[in-house]
Amino acid sequence: MTDLTQYADLLSAITARIQAAQARAVLAVNAELVHLYWQVGTLLVERQQREGWGAAVLPRLSRDLTTALPEVKGFSTRNLDRMVAFARAYPLPQAFMPQPVAKLAAPSTAGDFSPQPVAKLSDGASLLWQVPWGHHALLLQSVKDDATRRWYLTHTVSEGWSRSTLQTQIAQGAHLRQGALINNFAIRLPAPHSELVQQALKDPYVFDFLTLEPTFHERELEIGLVAHLEKFLLELGQGFAFVGRQYPLVVSDSEFYIDLLFYHLKLRAFVVIELKRGDFKPEYAGKLNFYCNVVDDTLRHAQDAPTIGLMLCQTKDSVLAEYALRGIDKPIGIASYELTRSLPATLQSALPSIEALEAELLMAQHASPHTDRHDQADDRTSE
Predict the structure, then answer these.
(1) At CB < 8 A and 24+ separation, what contacts does 179-187 make?
(2) Arithmetic mean of pLDDT, 35-53
(3) For residue 314, what are the contacts with CB-CB under 8 A and spacing of at least 6?
(4) How many CB atoms lie within 10 A of CB 349?
(5) What is the pTM of this model?
(6) Does the pLDDT of residue 347 top 70, yes or no?
(7) How does pLDDT run across 83-107, given as a tens digit for each residue?
């Protein structure tokens, strides 16, 4: 190894450690900030209950805190009100400890497989301290059910969702779609791997980043998903790695093509995705089973779990889908997908232009010059 190579390795190692330390520092600062806001909110709730104070005290408290600590941001009237709501929503932070994740033993043979453990949340810290304040504000505003809010807290931490991604997931009802697809995983895979596979998939999938005509072809859908691969991967969920589109398989001098082939890094398994326009048909399951067999024999390594098949159709009859999976020997799930439809020409002509929207926005900004500067600062720091 040359001196130049040794120096490059040293630089890379030190850079990685610095970046890791910076990431830990950001997480630590966030945890302290959210914990502080919870403590302040708890104090306010206690005083409201004991002294009978109402919301009228918050504007005065905000002004006095700004006077006493002019360099400290985040204590506007609106943010203080959020802290009160935060403390009321989570009176017992210790009840929000991350759930332990099952760890599976390493495989001993090709037939005796176990996937690698899924991403583990930080040990010993409440989920509340691991989620940024802006995410908490969004959840308190948008999700009223405690169990549902906990679901989004858990997935925000495990999948690293930004606030905009969290907002999209809430709007699309992600908690209702997770694990909802028709499948034979419980029969074809051992527990707990079958549960992990089911939770890694959903129904329906929402491809609202695509705009296709009602008469689109399946190849157009494939091309659109690959062209927007980052958004497609985000909708699929954490762990999916793209392998290829129209992936070729050769069997007995005949060539076949998989619509989309992925590898799931947590499940340690290939995922074959077939896309169909229109309704699900029973014969689709047999073709997908065939592809999974070939991938298992030609691409799967000894340490990999069995290949998973995922059939995506615009619509499906649940009874037909369940019958189609009977007797199928590979783990397969059947789900639907939704698209954004292109607007009719008559509706497009009725919509305002971008220039008109910008003019309206500019007028609105000039019409409301008294926005609370402290609130603006709170919104910026809560990202």
Answers:
(1) 180/335, 181/310, 181/333, 181/334, 181/335, 182/316, 182/318, 182/321, 182/322, 182/325, 182/333, 182/334, 182/335, 183/325, 183/331, 183/332, 183/333, 183/334, 184/325, 184/328, 184/331, 184/332, 185/331, 185/333
(2) 89
(3) 276, 277, 278, 279, 336, 337, 339
(4) 8
(5) 0.70
(6) no
(7) 999 999 999 888 887 765 444 444 4
